[in-house]
Structure formats: structure tokens, C-alpha cells
Amino acid sequence: MQYLMPIVIGILYVSLMSLIREPHRRRFNAIMIAGAGAAYLSGGGMGGWEFAFTALLAYVAYRGLDSWTFIGIGWLLHTAWDVVHHLKGSPLIPFAHDSSLGCAICDPVIALWCLRGGPSLRELLRRGRPAAPKDQAIPREALPDQAASNQAAPGRAVPRDTTA
Description:
55% of the residues lie in helices and 0% in strands.
């Protein structure tokens, strides 16, 4: 249960966040990672490094205002900081010895979601289904006349008629 519950919490976080519409969802998550960066400040288990880490995550959160990738990176950085705190014996919640370990398990779940672009649950479920194959052929009526068919539009190849 010690390892399963943090995963459930990460999934619950993703589920609740997916209720917020874009672009507010991304901006809200940028604020969340900034707050997560400051979570260890009161404990001070790493001394002055706590301030350096908070400054780093503040920068990553600022970049995350426009980028899900930076938010995902922020959660991965926070995971690493959780591991450091767990190994040092300076947990996130002082009276819960394994709180940093739980956070280190939960954060990558959130990071993966962010690195996928922070989709809503509906978008996640749609992506999981195989898409119907799309026919890439261009109808003959849509092709330019024979003289122009030797020149393709930029970025688009036009097949030549080889039946003549």
C-alpha cells in the first residue's frame, strides 16, 4: 500500500486537473510546480541548497507557463529532490517518515502526464483507441492539369500519371 497509494494520488491529481480547461490547466500546473519547489523550504534539510532548488523550480515553472514540457521536467526534478530528501532522512512531512518516498513515486505519474501535453481524461482515452486508417491518396479530380503535374506544391508530392 505504501507504493500503490502514491500512484493512486498521482492519477487522482491528473483526473482532477483534467477538469480545468486549457490554457488555464497548463498555467495552473505551472503554479503547482512552483509551489512544489518551495515545499521543502520550511524543513531546510539541505541547507542553502533548498533555496537554490526553489529558484531552479521557479524558473522551470515560469517557462512552464507556456510549455507542458517544462512542467514535466519540473516534476521530474522534484522527484529527484524527493529521493535526496528520503535518503538523507529529511522527509517532506516531518512526522511522516516516508512522505518524500511517496512523493517520489507520485511525481513521475504527474510528470508523464505533463510530458504528454497535459491532456484531459477524454483526450487520454481517445488517444488510447486505434485511429481509423486515413486514405492518403489524392483523388484524380483534385490533381492539377497534366502540364502542371510535373511541379508539386511545396511540401506536397503529386504523383505523376504513368498510364499514358
